[in-house]
Specification:
Blueprint lengths: L6 E5 L2 H10 L3 E2 L8 E6 L4 E7 H8 L13 E5 L3 H14 L2 E9 L3 E7 L5 E7 L7 H9 L4 E8 L3 H12 L5 E4 L15 H4 L2 E9 L2 E7 L13 E6 L3 H11 L4 E8 L4 E7 L5 E7 L4
Parallel strand pairs: 1-4, 5-8, 9-12, 13-16
Antiparallel strand pairs: 2-3, 3-4, 6-7, 7-8, 9-13, 10-11, 11-12, 14-15, 15-16
Helix pairs in contact: 1-3
């Protein structure tokens, strides 16, 4: 069972980065600090942030490091106990040699915060949150009780979907609410091209609940669609509460993208469509009419 999670950040000089964060008030585990890395502790739970020299970091990820002067992939957020603590941290950052990219100020009437860059350009967000000033709690409770659109991961395999999901089932437990193969599709379905013997025995769709409201979904590719590249073989599946909401999400998210299958009623009873958005992300939108 996993016991701990921590964050690794690439830095040009672990020692200088340690000095920078020390000036901001962060503590370090000296016994876990080397010339190439420093173990920083954040918050009351002592969340670990490892500051790792770039060459050592590259050896871990086997990939290129994001250029923080051009893009940001992760925003680190930390809380403050008061507005004054936010203001004090701004001054500490300036003195330590960091950069303020967002001056301290109000946000949405109940948050006060700032944003700064460390010596390596990583972006940090500091927030003081006054929950007593949050918008109408009654409205919030109504939203919490409202049935919401759900989002689930959808994985695609090159003929190994069944084996993969049997493995996932052995880990997460539970049962498959549905598992079907391409040869289960009606022969007169316009979305079903002629199938080879190999394709016919591949998984058309499978679903496995793995948590509260989260369902892991998957299928195999077919000869018509071609093999997928592992690592990019996923889609985001949205299940809506109404046909109207399904159409709205499909039309707005697919704007500027490529529609693979327009929203339509399927042989399995759902109202369903697929598209690639303008940023290259694969989406599926589904409304289960049979259950409504």
């Amino acid at each position: 069972m996993t016991k701990q999670i921590w964050l690794n950040l690439p830095v040009k000089d672990a020692i200088k980065s340690k000095e920078f964060f020390s000036k901001l008030g962060f503590k370090f585990l000296e016994e876990r600090t080397t010339p190439e890395s420093a173990c920083m502790l954040v918050g009351e739970s002592n969340f670990v942030v490892m500051l790792i020299a770039e060459e050592m970091f590259k050896n871990f990820i086997k990939h290129e490091i994001t250029d923080t002067s051009k893009s940001t992939q992760v925003l680190m957020s930390i809380d403050a106990e008061s507005r004054e603590e936010v203001d004090q941290l701004v001054e500490k950052v300036k003195i330590a040699g960091g950069t303020i990219y967002a001056e301290a100020g109000e946000n949405q009437g109940w948050m006060y915060g700032c944003g700064f860059c460390d010596l390596d350009g990583h972006r940090w967000n500091v927030l003081y949150m006054d929950f007593s000033k949050m918008p109408n709690l009654k409205k919030k409770n109504q939203l919490n009780n409202k049935k919401m659109t759900t989002v689930n991961p959808y994985l695609v395999f090159n003929g190994t979907c069944e084996a993969a999901f049997m493995f996932y089932k052995s880990v997460f437990g539970g049962d498959f609410p549905y598992i079907g193969k391409f040869n289960d599709m009606p022969s007169n379905d316009p979305n079903c091209p002629p199938l080879s013997d190999e394709d016919a025995n591949r998984i058309m769709h499978v679903s496995l609940p793995i948590g509260d409201g989260t369902i892991l979904m998957g299928s195999d590719s077919s000869s018509a669609s071609g093999d997928v590249i592992m690592g990019t073989n996923f889609s985001i599946s949205i299940n809506t509460e109404s046909k109207v909401e399904a159409d709205r999400l499909f039309n707005e998210l697919s704007s500027g993208g490529t529609v693979k299958m327009a929203m339509e009623k399927t042989f399995w009873g759902a109202y369903f469509g697929m598209f690639t958005d303008k940023f290259g992300i694969e989406w599926m939108v589904n409304f289960d009419e049979i259950q409504k």
